[in-house]
Amino acid sequence: MRVGGSGLQRAQRFVLLATGLYRLSHLVVALGAVVRGTVAGAACWVLLGTALATSALLYGTAYRRGWFAPGWVWADVLVTGFVLPVGTSYALGLGAVLANPWLVLLGGSAAAAAGAGLGLRSVAGAVAVLLAAPLVAAQGQATGALFGHLSSVVSSAVMARVFWWYLTRQGTLLDRATEQAVRAEARRARQAERMAHHRALHDTVLATLTTIAAGRVDANAPEVRERCGREAAYLRRLIQREDEPGCAGDGCPGAGCAEHGRTEPFAEVPLGAALEEAVRGAECLGLRITAQYAALPGVPRPVAVALAAAVSEALNNVLCHAGTGRAWLTAAGTGRGAVVTVVDRGAGFDPGRPPGGGTGLRRSVHQRLAGIGGRAEVDSAPDEGTRVELRWPA
User: Fold this and answer.
1) Which string of DSSP letters, residue by residue, matches 230-258?
2) Dihedral, CA of residue 125, residue 129, residue 135 and residue 139, to nearest 10
3) How many whole angstroms separate alpha carbon 73 and alpha carbon 353?
4) Which of 93, 172, 316, 365 could bond 207 through an S-S bridge, CB–CB 3.0 to 4.6 Å?
5) 10 Å Cβ neighbour count for 237?
6) 92-117 burial code (b ≥16 CB/10 A, e <16)
7) CA 111/CA 154 separation, integer angstroms
8) Helices (H), the chain
9) pTM for this one?
């Protein structure tokens, strides 16, 4: 049987294991009795072999299929629970049955298999057959040793049925809970994907269109056309949903999308190259940037993408809100981390009332840095410019 599976499958495996061990305990008792027995010794070995063969067929088939086959359950009830004790009584005498009580004991484990593997009406029929076995085997004699197993048969069938009902119910509830959790996780993943695309669109396509609409750049300039073409390709991938893992995702167009499909997700990449891509994207829209880099380390690709996307948004804010065409970027390594700063000497703003409602700063800067274990700080005041500091790790 396979490991894992649904709650119902796990319940089936447990019941098969429990009833199989119950039968095994009876067969061990039978083996000990046959080895020590003196009454009809050779015939008892044949009887034990028959019980072993029937048990192997019942449980071997059940373990291969994952559950009991009703036909084999009935075969086990008839052979081990009825034919063996009754046939032995009539062929070898009642004394042979009394000397080998395991012949009757097997009826208990046969009842357990029937209680779990058959329908309710079939269970009642199987129990009736098992209860009739000692009556027929006794040949009209009042033998308490044979009748003593009646309660064992009934209790075994009832307990197996109750266990099977309870485990099935719990397995079904577990499957429902798992299905609900999977659906909830799928919804969360879809929402996270939409938010990532929204941030990327805000930082790239929307920033480009806003700058062109405001007349700050010549829409026919080669640099602007190149940026528009790159972002049009991003939109096309987004619509067609044919993007590869890591492409058309968070910050893709502004952070070296062409490299995403060729880079391992957590391989280290040069941080300076990702930042320079963001700088070139802003320069295409007419912003003059003085950039300085010092001892930048290699960082995991998601970190480089997030830092570059946050820098793109900071530079977009300079373009759209600062009222200046000049910005300064400095990036320096701090061991295995980095600090990136974007500064402008523009209009600034009241931190309590950020431009555009603060959507870009909140989603494209603070959330991105928090998502990679970093921290973003924004320092600004009216008429005093703005300073955005990105630190990774926090």
Assistant:
1) HHHHHHHHHHHT-PPTTSSSTTTGGGTHH
2) 140
3) 76
4) 316
5) 18
6) bebebbbbbbbbbbbbbbbbbbbbbb
7) 7
8) 7-36, 41-65, 70-78, 84-92, 94-99, 102-117, 120-137, 144-147, 150-203, 205-213, 222-240, 257-260, 271-283, 301-317, 359, 367-371
9) 0.51
